[in-house]
Amino acid sequence: MVSRVRVWLNRTYAENVFFMDQLRRNPSDRAVEIHATHGDADSPVLAAADTADLEPEGLSPAGYVEYALAQCRRRGIDVFVPRMHQSAIVAHRAEFEAVGTALLAPPPEAVAVFHDKVIAYEAVQAIGVPVPPWWRVRTADELESAVEELEAHGHKACFKPASGAGGVGFRVITRSPFSLMHLNGFPTPYVQLDLVLDALRRADEPVDWLVMPRLEQPEVSVDCLTGPDNRVRLAIGRSKNGRRRGFTLQEQWLEPARRIAEGFGLHYLSNIQFRMFGETPVLMDVNTRPAGGLHQLSLCGVNVPWLAVQLALGEDPGEVVPPFLGQDYTVVSGPRQVRPVSIPQQRAEEAEPLLPAVPAPVDSVESGAAQVLPI
User: Fold this and answer.
1) What distance in Å separates the CA atoms of residue 165 and residue 163, rounded to the nearest whole number?
2) pLDDT tens digits for range 316-368
3) What is the spatial distance between Cα 188 and Cα 173, in angstroms, rounded to a whole number?
4) CA neighbor of 84 nearest in space, from 99, 101, 65
5) Are strands 329-338 and 280-287 parallel, antiparallel or unpaired?
6) Taking Cα atoms as reference points, which of 54, 51, 33 lies closest to residue 43?
């Protein structure tokens, strides 16, 4: 009799409820039990899990590793998918293996390269992958100089933190003076250059930003599944152009993604994002974790979360080609269950978790989880 697989997702995105759903609906018909932890008691991943705990706040990276090892021992975790403190966790892979837990994450060297976008751009440029022009800025004068250089070549300047995930901190520079026009309608990523320069000059400490031209659509995110032998088992591009989403196997996107995943050892699941700079696809970002939209590949007839868990368990699925590419689609919000009672944030002095290990019946919903609909 094949034993069940116990998978843990730590403080992760709400969209990963779909990752969990796919693990349970795996084509191997293998029993999967999912453990989830989070700092927010109302995260839908906690309600979707078989067992759940609130994470203690204020732990250092080293303290979090000890917490994670204790969770793996206590819960009998077979596969751990770390997002929170990923870089600290993967540095202790041998300790997790010693307690019987496989880490579904790249080695520490790969995580370190892509933690800092400047180091990442320099590294991928060295292996022949095109990147946009960029400037690392820490002061108002450096920002102003970079913006002027970009505008002189007809580009619109934008900036984002040199390290970070998602679109946090991304802004587009405009020279239009602040007016009531900017207070009408919905907020936008545009920010006035004079306001940014003034804020920087008044700041107590320097920033660490990457300044570059605003890149054009389409945006293509290539989801890669790579083995510990550095060989890509699966690569599919998800395209985004306004509201419309789709899939692609065009080599102009997949070839540089494979080169990055294999060249830097991005084991298991990674997400490599490109946009257009003129007529050339250039690298935008590399995520050393599963993308929030990974579940959308189910529209192509593949269950990538389960393939990744199989690979982590040493059950190599071999090269995987999607049987078809799904039709174009869009993403909409939908309700998702949360816990019946919102529980206060866990305090460090609590000896026991404030969240029960087995979910209670649920009758509340959250409307922020994304679903996909064909268009």
Assistant:
1) 7
2) 999 999 999 999 999 998 898 898 766 544 434 444 444 444 443 344 444 44
3) 11
4) 65
5) unpaired
6) 54
